[in-house]
Structure formats: C-alpha cells, structure tokens
Amino acid sequence: MTYENAGNGAILSQQTDRESNARTYPRHLPFAIREARGFTVVDMDGDEYYDCLAGAGTLALGHNHPRVVDAMERVLDAGRPLHTLDISTPAKERFVDSLFESLPDEFASRAKVQFCSPAGTDAVEAALKLVRTATGNRSILGFGGAYHGMTSGALSLMGDTEAKEPIGGLPGHVHHLPYPYDYRPPFGVGGEEGHRLAGEYAENLLADPGSGVTEPAGMILEPVQGEGGAIPAPNEWLREMREITREHDVPLILDEIQTGLGRTGETYAFEHAGITPDVVTLSKAVGGGLPLAVVVYDESLDAWEPGAHAGTFRGNQLAMAAGEATIDYVLEHDLADRAAEAGERLRESLDATAEKFDAVGDVRGRGLMLGVEFVDPDGDWRGPGPHPPDGDLASAVRAACFDRGLVVELGGRESATARFLPPLTVSDDELDDVASIFDEAVAAAVEEEAKTGVTA
Predict the structure, then answer these.
(1) Alpha helices in 158-250 (DSSP H)
(2) CA dist 17 → 11, 14, 43, 55 (Å)
(3) Pfam families per the record (predicted)?
(4) What is the pLDDT of residues 128-168, one digit of tens each?
(5) pTM over 0.90
C-alpha cells in the first residue's frame, strides 16, 4: 500500500489489524492525519480540523511551528549528534539555560535537573525515586482524581481505580487525600469552606499518630488536574499544602507535565499561588513536541549516587533543540499572558453555552486548559455534586464536534468532561470558531438525546 495516497478508511483498517487493543484515540477520532500546521490538521481524505487536543497539551506552539522546525533543521544540517545519553553538548546546555530562565528565581537558584527517559510518566517515577532516596521513607501522599501516567509507580498514585483493576491493583504505600473540586466537593461543601476542610484533613492525617499513615517520602499533586477533568487547585489550598508539607518535612512534588510552560496563564501553574515546590516534573511542552522529560528539584534532595537513575533516551538532542526554541518563544512572546486572555475569551463562550443547556453542569479550568462537564439533570444520584456525570452525552458531543471539524478529548469522572487544550498561539478568530462549533455540537447531541431517549 502507498500510504501517502491512501484514505482514512484504508489506514484505519491497517491500524486495527496490526496495533494493540489498547489503542485509544482512533476509536473515537476515526481519521489518519496527513499534514498539520498551527492549530489545524488535515486528514487523509483532505478534511481539515481544529486541534484542541494538540498532543494532549504537548504542542504549546501548535503543529510545525517555524521556530521549532528551524531549530531541528539546524541540528540536522550541522551534523550534530542526535543521541548522547547524559553526555553534555552545546544543545543540552542551551536547553538547560532556557529551562532555568523560565523558572522563578527562588526555585531556579537552588535547582538541579535530572534528564529521564522521555515520557512524563518517567519523570514521575524519577521524582518518586528521588524523594524516597533523599528521605529514606517509602509512602507517598497522592490525591483523588489524579493522573500521573501509566507506569507502575505512576498508576499507584492515581485516584481512578479503573486502570489498576485489570492488573490486580498495585503495591501500597500511597495514601490518597481529597482534592478540592467545587462542583463535586469531597466533603459536601465547595468554595472556601470546602478548601479549608480539605486542608484540615491533610493536616490532621499527618499530625495524628493513629492515622495509619507512615511518615511520607513526598506529596505529589497537579496544580490543575488534567485527565481528572480540568480541575484547578485553589490558590489558598495550594499554599496550605505547601505550608503543611514544609512543617512536616515532606517534599512537595508538583506534576506540571500538562500545566507547565504557559498553559494556565502563568509560566508554571504553581506561580498562581506564589509557592516554591521542592520538585517539579516536566514533559510535554518542554520538548517542543518531541519526547523529553525532566525532573527539576531543590539541591537539598540531591542524594543520588552516580548512576542511581538513568535512561537510554535521556540525551535526545533534537528534543532539546526543539524545547529550547519553544521555551524561548513562550517567554519572548509572553504566551502565558496570552493563554490567560485567550482562555478567558473561550471560557466566556463556553459559559454562554452552559447557560443554554441544563446538561452542562460545570465549566472550569485555567488559561487554555478548560473543561466542560456534562451531566444528567434528571438522573438519580447520591454521589458528590448535584447531578450524575453523563459520559454518554459527552461522547456524543465529542463525535458531533468531530463531524463539524473540531477535535476535543474527554476526561474526568465517567469521561464526562470535554477538554480544551489548544496551542497557546491560537487566534481570537480561531477560538470563536471553536466556541461556535462546540455550541452547535452540544445542541445537536442534546436534541438527539431528547428525540430518541438515547445519546447519538
């Protein structure tokens, strides 16, 4: 088969025959991508789509940004090494310069960096190993609703049990705490009171010798839960977690793999709360669209012996060149501020859609990391929040968006939250188009459900 001239159907058929049953996106985004630029992708049948998935938030500058392409071409044209393990190169040192320049001064002045195997979940595994080595402790404090990756240690941190059940669960040593979630508050009350209760719960757990929690090696959390449904942590609660962990000498790990590099309206999401973490895990955007993962941490934790943590592909030179170009572009063009402005524009439109449909339960997020949760307003429900999540309707909305040329993904409980992760370079006109398409898709899905009694 000449794949470049094949249509969607032929390539999808090949993929179905040959790839693992674990494949995900092609099941509900039934196309193969021929080309991509900026905010758009074109499939093998010539149809064009706005890409609000953007590599699960990886493509901060969109597809094939000229600055990133030029950086990679310079490496290739000059005959530079592409793979160097952890041996340094000018490209690597320039990447670290840019990375440290992007960090708040208070953190950067005491920072060490560890290059990992290239996926975000590898950075999480390295961070767990780091704090366990530094403290001599074993247990980790995680949070309900969290997502940190698909390797064993990362899976053990997740609140969602579905991914763990097929493999018979995972080793213990992880204690899950409630994460503030105003629409579905874990203590039955949202807002400041709910945040206060969540903070007190964590404080009491650590202070009570009868809590059953052994002395933790670290606490890991996402400043905005991504796969959990675009749930932002309140700033005051983040400050409380920082105070509690410092008081109890527990290293605070912030998973900024999806939030990092401008997406939430600050260069790093923890800057909204004005805190300084002990450890930050980074991947996705910092590689400029190529595989790269790092752990940045306070030098006081650098208790590793030489060779204590390694990875064959930690020396990905193309990714470092692409990452340097991306970080520099984000900083030079104030794309964090742009994400805040663009996110507010899109959120206003999503709020307008929510006003029209009872099936939209909540609109939330930060910057260009937004979510719309669908609910069944007439369903029986004894869980947290006013209405049960409606994953079937969310799936129908996703399909209706796709039919109209918009790629969105789902997350959250019951996969009932439509998530928006467009590039930080998205224009106002493109955002308005996204909002219009989404509004039409919601209307179509809700109408079909009303007519048939089932979602399309």
Answers:
(1) 191-207, 235-247
(2) 10, 5, 20, 24
(3) Aminotran_3
(4) 999 999 999 999 999 999 999 888 888 888 766 565 455 44
(5) yes
